């Protein structure tokens, strides 16, 4: 099996979350975090757990308490790895200093040895207690047996390096004296340092800051080693022997106070460090070497300095570039859009709205793509489908679950729909949809407000929709053949909306027929209510059909016949429009001038009689039937 990280599925309620974890068996208290890949083909898991467990992957879902323990275990294990990394850094930084500078003396040697052996104790604990209890993957199963875990650790290259780092060369102290170079094998435990870096980056929200600090530390360590070498070469040639070597200022010995001695020793280190900085960074202004040994040493310094410094600068550029990639993309898109609008002489008000959209989208979402949801999908493309669903549920489910339209639908259908949502930002006054447009998408308000407007100049506000509201579903579901927008909707302030395309919804509803029927039923009811409220003229609202009156009166006692009932209101036919004054004046002038008064009078009288007869016939046809004379449903 190739090396890799174990991704263990943890289910909580509706979702499954993946986490890589290391497990240690033995005492109490779980520790959980990520891990480096094993070098022998086995994959260590990422939960550190100090309690016995069966040698198989648990199938039961984890509780909230177990997950909280796992999170605390991450931090605790990182703290332990920090302790091991600190012991390794003690050896890395101070072995060259103690070898090159006269900081270690017979008077303070016990303190140095005490710190050294404390670091060795940390190494031993890590090798004997922690590392042999790492679970690993073999054939797809998590191996939790203690013997198997110990054997697996002893087969790895890391075990060999860890054992070699504890080779007791300090026994030679009895023959050579206390020589810090005999502790160089302690540097072989470098794997713990890299493991700590990976674990720390896994729990940091802004890991690029730590990467910048770590890269800077690498550069400082190179300068540190060069300063130690320069002081050692100066001591080998002779302090102050030539103009190129260190002159020995700060290495004074004799009867001085401890504070003054420390200050002078620090001064010598700083002077040598200054030389190393000027050499590796190739600043110049250094004294010319005189001997062949000095020339060779200086040439090596220059070559190594150029090589190391260029690597550090390139790595720093990559770290900073990766940290600011989204912002750089945002600036590039905005600059190109402004350049395009300027070249085509787009009006200034349109340009200002485009700039406002870019600025608000970046400030509110922190990302920019063709649309933010598309950019998010590009980021999460490599994740498995279930993990993308988990992220979508965490981000959007709290809003979509409150939408009345989807209440009662299949829960899995909502989960599938969450992956198809895309987020769009609208500026104040922007039209979200217009009446009469072909409906190809539905809208869910994530944040902000939209208004349903109409009337002259679109200034009449019929309704205000807030976060959690949905609109556009009537056209999307095409209820009753209606595939066009039935109202104008504009953004009231900045509005962030989820958009669901008709194609995506149809592909989802194919697998959920019951939810499809429920959605169409709700959309049909919403369409009927909308038509009742907006499309029926006020004059027809007072006419009550006979079967409606029967349903309303069902179950009630009949009223006494003696009581006179008010007749039901009867709509009156609309009158003919009045003759315009200009036309009436023209007719009168024609009658006076042409002598056609008698003929025109007869025509006018006939037209008035026909109008009166038409009104009487309409009134007779609209009068409700007499319940006594005409048989109705009650009589049947």
TrEMBL record:
Catalytic activity reported: Na(+)(in) = Na(+)(out); K(+)(in) = K(+)(out)
Region entry Disordered, spans: 1-68, 552-636
Localization terms from the record: Membrane
Gene Ontology molecular functions: cGMP binding; intracellularly cAMP-activated cation channel activity; intracellularly cGMP-activated cation channel activity; protein-containing complex binding
Keyword tags: cGMP, cGMP-binding, Ion channel, Ion transport, Ligand-gated ion channel, Membrane, Nucleotide-binding, Sensory transduction, Transmembrane, Transmembrane helix, Transport, Vision
Compositional bias annotation for Polar residues: 25-51
Record bears the keyword Nucleotide-binding: yes
Cyclic nucleotide-binding domain: residues covered: 405-509
Biological-process GO terms, alphabetical: retina homeostasis; visual perception
Topology within the bilayer: Multi-pass membrane protein
Pfam families named in the record: cNMP_binding, Ion_trans
Domain of life: Eukaryota
SUPFAM superfamilies: cAMP-binding domain-like, Voltage-gated potassium channels
Protein name: Cyclic nucleotide-binding domain-containing protein
Source organism: Gambusia affinis
């Amino acid at each position: 099996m190739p090396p890799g990280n174990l991704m263990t599925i943890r289910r909580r309620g509706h979702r499954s979350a993946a986490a890589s974890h290391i497990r240690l068996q033995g005492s109490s208290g779980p520790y959980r975090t990520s891990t480096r890949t094993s070098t022998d083909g086995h994959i260590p898991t990422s939960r550190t757990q100090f309690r016995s467990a069966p040698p198989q992957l648990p199938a039961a879902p984890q509780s909230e308490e177990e997950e909280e323990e796992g999170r605390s275990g991450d931090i605790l294990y990182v703290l332990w790895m920090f302790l091991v990394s600190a012991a390794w850094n003690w050896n890395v930084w101070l072995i060259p200093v103690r070898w090159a500078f006269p900081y270690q003396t017979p008077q303070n040697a016990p303190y140095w040895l005490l710190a050294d052996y404390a670091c060795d104790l940390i190494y031993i604990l890590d090798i004997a207690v922690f590392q042999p209890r790492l679970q690993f993957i073999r054939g797809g199963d998590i191996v939790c047996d203690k013997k198997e875990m110990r054997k697996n650790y002893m087969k790895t290259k890391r075990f060999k390096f860890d054992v070699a780092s504890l080779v007791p060369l300090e026994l030679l102290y009895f023959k050579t004296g206390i020589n810090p170079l005999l502790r160089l094998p302690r540097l072989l435990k470098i794997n713990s340092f890299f493991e700590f870096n990976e674990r720390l980056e896994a729990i940091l929200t802004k890991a690029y800051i730590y990467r910048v600090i770590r890269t800077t530390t690498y550069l400082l360590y190179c300068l540190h080693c060069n300063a130690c070498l320069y002081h050692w070469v100066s001591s080998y040639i002779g302090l102050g022997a030539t103009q190129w070597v260190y002159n020995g200022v700060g290495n004074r010995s004799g009867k001085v106070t401890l504070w003054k001695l420390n200050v002078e020793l620090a001064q010598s280190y700083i002077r040598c460090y200054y030389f190393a900085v000027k050499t590796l960074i190739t600043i110049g202004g250094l004294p010319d070497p005189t001997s062949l040994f000095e020339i060779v040493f200086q040439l090596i310094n220059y070559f190594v300095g150029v090589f190391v410094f260029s690597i550090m600068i390139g790595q720093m550029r990559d770290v900073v570039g990766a940290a600011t990639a989204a912002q750089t993309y945002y600036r590039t898109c905005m600059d190109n859009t402004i350049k395009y609008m300027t070249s085509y002489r787009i009006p200034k008000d349109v340009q200002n709205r485009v700039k406002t959209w870019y600025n608000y989208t970046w400030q509110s979402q922190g990302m920019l793509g063709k649309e933010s949801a598309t950019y998010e999908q590009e980021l999460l493309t490599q994740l498995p489908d279930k993990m993308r669903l988990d992220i979508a549920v965490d981000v959007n489910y709290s809003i979509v679950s409150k939408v009345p339209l989807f209440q009662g639908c299949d829960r899995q259908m909502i989960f599938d729909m969450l992956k198809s949502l895309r987020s769009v930002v609208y500026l104040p006054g922007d039209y979200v949809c217009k009446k009469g447009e072909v409906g190809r998408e539905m809208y869910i308000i994530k944040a902000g407000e939209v208004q349903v407007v109409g009337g002259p100049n679109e200034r009449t506000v019929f309704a205000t929709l807030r976060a959690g509201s949905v609109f556009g579903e009537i056209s999307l579901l095409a209820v009753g053949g209606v595939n066009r927008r039935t109202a104008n909707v504009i953004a009231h302030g900045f509005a962030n909306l989820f958009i669901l395309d008709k194609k995506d919804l149809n592909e989802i509803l194919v697998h959920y027929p019951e939810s499809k029927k429920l959605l169409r039923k709700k959309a049909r009811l919403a369409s009927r209510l909308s038509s009742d409220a907006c499309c029926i003229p006020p004059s027809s609202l007072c006419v009550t059909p006979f079967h409606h009156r029967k349903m309303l009166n069902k179950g009630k006692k009949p009223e006494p016949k003696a009581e006179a009932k008010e007749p039901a209101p009867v709509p009156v036919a609309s009158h003919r429009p009045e003759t315009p004054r200009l036309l009436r004046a023209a007719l009168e002038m024609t009658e006076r001038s042409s002598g056609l008064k008698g003929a025109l009078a007869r025509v006018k009288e006939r037209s008035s009689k026909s109008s009166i007869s038409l009104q009487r016939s309409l009134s007779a046809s609209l009068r409700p039937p007499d319940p006594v004379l005409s048989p109705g449903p009650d009589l049947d």
